[in-house]
């Protein structure tokens, strides 16, 4: 390739199997070396890639126009800006993402510490599509590099000009033993799929995704499949139609509908269908024009004549079966042009209702009952995306809970792809696995489990099995059964925003107030034994205890009624500074009991104060009953009332 003229020879396009194997082999030692690469080294490579993209911006725009007639600013948004944002986000957070994750020790593994580390998968293959060549090639390349892998890229032959630019960018940024890129037709991808890669990342149709997965299975290679499907839209009668029209028109006709998460078909409430159609037609007329003027609009073209003919067939089939064209319907095969088109009255057996459209045609289906829509969605393969326009929070939640999709936008389309902190991927037929940000690191990494023994305690389970082993097993089973019983007890006693609670107060007014505020039971320590009374109510003990007294005897009573894994919080300050906590280490460790000192509630005011205000507004925090106001001259009366229990906080 001549990097200046972007001219390719036929030999470069039709790479041989021997050449593919050669590059695959030279990446093996590099993959081993990259396991020890630092975060800083990986970030440096990403910054070098970013610089190359920026330097080739004009070439990218020109190539997009040659391949798609894609408007320059549309290409900058979808192909350049999105990749640069992903690069920036990854460089900023990579150190945090790759940091080993500490894992909490379980009861059986006392004496050990555990962590999960992300290690590179090794040699990876990225097979990218033609609809967004840069975004869907460099997008997965970013986490692959950030994770420390070597990569071979196979671009699509359907967008040759953008493919040439990517070859230029990759070859001026990386050595081929780390990142290599090849063009060519499907035979090149077929040859690459026979090699034993450590991971394959494929973006394309579900049909080809099955071929990739079958090939990967022969080498037990892990895969990430970013596929597609028919992503539905639901607009109910509460929706903001003006917003729905603008966002839906943008999402549907961006890249002339050739987007994997593009809205495929629309379900709309019957009583607003005509109003929506009127607004939608007017909006797209304002943007793209009507009739012959549409040909001059800022609208990308279909990628080639074959795909144009496929979409035209879907349109013709629908019309032959009774569908009505409400807008557009212009097809110019030799120019790969299809105008924005709106269809209605489409029969269920029309091909356009069965196949992913992947073009600028929007079928509209009216509905009376939302359940009918959900039934139709659930009867089809799980979509890559599902979009809902509504102001009804209950209905929105009902739709989400009763469907499955790779991702969902409420009152928007497609922008979840641009949210760097969300995973992007499909479900089953629409994809396997996901990527973006930390999820991209996980896609191109093996999550390695590491456990370190600090104190050998598991030896008690080694043969020969003795009475001591029997005692330990019985003890652990007893704790396990008590924990299960405690969970069941807590679940059976739960009502909204309340749990089974026991209050212990010396004075009667406070006991009455505790019951009034929701305590399940109260105990009078003057007349009742605290421990026996608690065990009558909670046979396995309490899960949480809060001491505000600081009195040693009280603290001991509370310790004796703690359930396994209980948390015991201390607010009260004892009179004697040297006072010790109740219980022993051997009582606490096997039962997993936690002591916690609390200062000023140990809360985050930015979060807790708004929460307390919301509880108060809902009547769930009757703070007025806890506070009594006195004039200053009655300060002695206020103190006396506090001692007597007539008020909580004077």
Describe this structure in words.
It is a single chain. This protein is of the alpha/beta class and about 650 residues long. The chain folds into four domains: about 190 residues, Aldehyde Dehydrogenase, Chain A, domain 1, CATH 3.40.605.10; about 190 residues, Aldehyde Dehydrogenase, Chain A, domain 2 (3-Layer(aba) Sandwich); about 140 residues, Rossmann fold; about 50 residues, no CATH class. It contains 22 helices and 25 strands. A seven-stranded mixed sheet has the order 10-13-14-9-8-15-16, with helices on both faces. A six-stranded mixed sheet has the order 5-4-3-6-7-18, sandwiched between helices. β3, α6 and β4 form a beta-alpha-beta unit. The longest helix has 27 residues. GO terms for molecular function: aldehyde dehydrogenase (NAD+) activity.
Computed CA radius of gyration, to the nearest angstrom: 33 Å
Question: Structural class, from secondary structure content?
Answer: alpha/beta
Question: CATH homologous superfamily name of the largest domain?
Answer: Aldehyde Dehydrogenase, Chain A, domain 1
Put simply, the count of helices is 22
Tally of domains: 4
CATH fold call of the largest domain: Aldehyde Dehydrogenase, Chain A, domain 1
Multimerization status: single chain
The largest pleated sheet is described as: 7 strands, mixed
Number of strands: 25
CATH class of the largest domain: Alpha Beta
Q: Strands of the biggest beta sheet: in what spatial order?
A: 10-13-14-9-8-15-16
Strand content: 15-25%
């Amino acid at each position: 390739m001549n990097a200046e003229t972007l001219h390719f020879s036929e030999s470069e396009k039709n790479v041989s199997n021997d050449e593919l194997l050669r590059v695959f082999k030279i990446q093996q030692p590099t993959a081993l070396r990259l396991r020890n690469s630092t975060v800083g080294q990986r970030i440096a490579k990403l910054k070098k890639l970013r610089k190359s993209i920026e330097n080739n911006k004009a070439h990218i725009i020109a190539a997009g126009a040659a391949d798609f007639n894609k408007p320059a600013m549309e290409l900058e948004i979808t192909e350049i800006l999105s990749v640069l944002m992903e690069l920036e986000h990854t460089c900023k957070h990579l150190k945090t993402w790759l940091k080993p994750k500490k894992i909490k020790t379980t009861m059986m593994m006392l004496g050990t510490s555990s962590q999960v580390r992300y290690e590179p998968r090794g040699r990876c293959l990225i097979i990218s599509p033609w609809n967004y060549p840069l975004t869907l090639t460099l997008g997965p390349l970013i986490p692959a590099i950030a994770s420390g892998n070597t990569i071979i890229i196979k671009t699509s032959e359907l967008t040759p000009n953008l493919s040439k630019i990517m070859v230029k960018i990759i070859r001026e940024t990386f050595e081929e033993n780390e990142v290599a890129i090849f063009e060519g037709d499907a035979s090149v991808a077929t040859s690459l799929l026979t090699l034993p890669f450590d991971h394959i990342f494929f973006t394309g149709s579900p049909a080809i995704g099955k071929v990739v997965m079958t090939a990967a299975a022969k080498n037990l290679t892990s895969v990430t499949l970013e596929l597609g499907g028919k992503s539905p839209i639901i607009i109910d009668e509460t929706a903001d139609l003006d917003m729905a029209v603008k966002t839906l028109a943008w999402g549907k006709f961006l890249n002339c509908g050739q987007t994997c998460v593009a809205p495929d078909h629309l379900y709309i409430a019957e009583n607003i269908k005509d109003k929506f159609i009127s607004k939608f037609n007017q909006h797209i007329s304002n943007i793209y024009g009507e009739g012959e003027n549409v040909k001059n609009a800022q609208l990308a073209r279909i990628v080639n004549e074959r795909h144009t003919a496929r979409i035209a067939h879907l349109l013709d089939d629908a019309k032959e079966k009774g569908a009505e064209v409400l807008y557009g319907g212009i097809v110019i095969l030799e120019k790969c042009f299809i105008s924005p088109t709106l269809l209605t009255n489409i029969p269920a057996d029309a091909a356009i209702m069965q196949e992913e459209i992947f073009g600028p045609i929007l079928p509209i289906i009216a509905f009376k009952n939302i359940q009918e829509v959900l039934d139709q969605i659930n009867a089809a393969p799980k979509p890559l995306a599902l979009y809902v326009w509504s102001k009804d929070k209950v209905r929105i939640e009902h739709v989400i809970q009763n469907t499955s999709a790779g991702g969902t936008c409420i009152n928007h389309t497609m922008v979840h792809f641009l949210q760097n902190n969300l995973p992007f991927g499909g479900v089953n037929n629409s994809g396997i696995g996901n990527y973006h940000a930390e999820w991209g690191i996980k896609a191109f990494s093996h999550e390695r489990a590491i456990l370190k023994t600090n104190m050998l305690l598991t030896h008690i389970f080694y043969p020969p099995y003795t009475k001591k082993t029997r005692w330990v097993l019985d003890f652990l089973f007893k704790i396990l059964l008590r924990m299960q019983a405690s969970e069941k007890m807590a679940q059976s006693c739960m009502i909204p925003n309340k749990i089974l609670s026991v209050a212990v107060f010396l004075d009667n007014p406070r006991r009455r107030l505790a019951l009034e505020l929701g305590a399940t039971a109260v105990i009078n320590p003057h007349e009742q034994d605290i421990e026996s009374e608690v065990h009558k109510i909670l046979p396995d003990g309490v899960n949480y205890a809060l001491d505000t007294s600081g009195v040693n005897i009280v603290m001991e009573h509370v310790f004796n009624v703690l359930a396994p894994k209980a948390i015991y919080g201390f607010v009260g300050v004892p009179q004697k500074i040297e006072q010790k906590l109740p219980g022993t280490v051997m009582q606490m460790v096997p039962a997993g009991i936690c002591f916690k000192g609390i200062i000023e509630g140990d809360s985050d005011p930015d979060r807790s104060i708004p929460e307390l205000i919301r509880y108060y507004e809902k009547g769930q925090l009757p703070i007025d009953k806890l506070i009594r106001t006195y004039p200053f001259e009655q300060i002695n009366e206020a103190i006396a009332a506090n001692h007597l229990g007539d008020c909580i906080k004077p």
